[in-house]
Every structure is written in structure tokens, then in C-alpha cells.
Amino acid sequence: MRKIISTLLALLAVLAVGAGMTVVALTNGTPVAKDGSVSAFDRIGRAFTAAEVAARDRRYAANASSGRGEPDAVHWVDRTDSSPLVIVAPHAVNHHRDGEPKPADRYTGPIAEILARRLGASVLTTTGEVSDWNEQWDDRDDEFTRILHDLPDEAIIIDLHGMADSSAAEPISLGTGKKDSGPSMEIAEGIKDSFGGAAEINETFTAKAAYTDTRHMQGRGHDALQVEMAQSMRNPGDLNVGYTIDALEGALESLH
Ligand SMILES: [Zn+2]
To answer: What is the top-level taxon of the source organism (predicted)?
Structure first.
């Protein structure tokens, strides 16, 4: 009996050291908090978030990022009864633009899922390659569009995308769409504050075509905001993804 107990204790010690080393390895990245004050608790939390992003990413990464689902398949969790926030990742898998295939906005799917779960918000992501809809919402006959069009009037759309690190002066670029959308601007300012000011508003993506979820849903009377995240803010190999999700959660939690 004694031998069994000491063997179990030794095994536990090995497991604990292994877990500790994993946490240390995962926390070697440098989150971009401007004031540099990241507690050990936050670092460990971000390491776990990065691991969750990687785990949830499997369904999106499958088939060379066309996703595990059939073409135009979606992941939809409806929490509109209890929260107006709807987190959307329309480019979580490969899609099309101007008739050309366009690679996935990597990790926006898992980021949307985790953010929505923490906020108690709804989440809509693409999990199967998105068809070429010729930049026309009127022609669309897919689950993604049907869900968006069935949302209650008070739903607020947070439209998550990925951009290259070199695309904008800041790692987060926010687009409020229609200029007169007051609540979108308030939400954008809140997100900018939450990232310690490291976000631009209506700069790089101001002149985007009308064919975006944000513009489309604003046209239907919703408040909506486009959030572009640099690659380095999304990659779970880099702890910034934990920081990114924490910062978005902090900015959005007052809205739900
Ligand atoms: Zn996108």
C-alpha cells in the first residue's frame, strides 16, 4: 500500500512539473499590454486561453482551412434571449472575394466562440467553405444569411476579421461602417481603451466596399462594428491571443 501511495505521489509530482513547464513555455510570449503590468495570474489565464483557441481551431483548420463542415455550413449558438451581442466570424474558413478564392481569417472562429461564451453572447461562424456570392446579399440563400436576417432588431453585431500585421498602423483596426452610427462609435472607443489605445478607428478600413456584414446589418437597422485583428493578435502560438480575447471581453461586457 505504501509503495502504491509513494508511486502515485511521484507520478503526481511528475505531472505537476510537466504542467508547470507547459505554463512557463506558453507564457514566454510577450503580451502587448501597454503598461507592461501583466500579473502571473493573467499570464497563466492567457496561456490556457491560447490552448483553448488551438483546440477549438481544429474544425476550422480542417481541409486546409476550408473547415470540417459542408460548403456554407455554420456554427450558431443562439443566446439572443439573454444578450443583444452577436459575435460573428464570417471568414473563419476559406471564402471568396471578387470571384477569387480568399484564405481564411485564421483563428477568428475560435476567438468568436470563446468571446461569446464568456460574454453570454450569441456566436455565428463559418465552418465550411463559403460560396462565391458575387458580392450580392440579395442572391444569397445560405444558413449564414438566414440567421443574420432572423436576428431580433436589438441585436448588435460584432464582426470579427483578420488582417496582416502590416495592414494597419495599429494591431487592431475598427470600422464603424455608416458614419452616423453613434453606438458603433461608442463601442469602438471602448475597445480602443481596452487595448490601451493600440487600435485605430475608421482608418485603414474606412473605404471598404458596401458588401460587409457590418454595412449590410447596419442597412437593416442594427448597430454593428467591424473588428480587424492583426495576425500576431490571433495566433495561439503567441500569447497575444489571450490578451486579445481578455481586452475584447472587457470592452464588451457592459453591453450584454
Ligand atoms: Zn475578413
So the answer is: Bacteria
> For 43-100, how does the pLDDT look when each residue is reduced to its tens digit (9 = 90+)?
899 999 999 999 999 999 999 999 999 999 999 999 999 999 999 999 999 999 888 9
Distance CA 87, CA 161 (A): 11
CATH number of this structure's domain 31-255, picked from the four choices 3.30.1450, 3.30.160, 3.40.630, 2.70.50: 3.40.630
* Separation of CA 91 and ligand 1 centre (Å): 5
DSSP bridge pairs for 158: 87, 225
Alpha-helical runs (H) found in the chain:
2-26, 40-56, 58-65, 108-119, 143-149, 182-194, 213-219, 240-252
From start to end of 164-214, where are the E strands? 172-175, 199-201
Interval between CA 89 and ligand 1 midpoint (Å):
8
Q: Tell how far the Cα of 12 is from the centroid of ligand 1, in angstroms.
A: 45
18 CA distance to ligand 1 middle (Å): 38
Q: How far is the CA of 228 from the centre of ligand 1 (A)?
A: 8
Instruction: Quickly tell me which residue has 505521489 as its cell.
Output: 9
CA of 34 to the centre of ligand 1 (A): 26
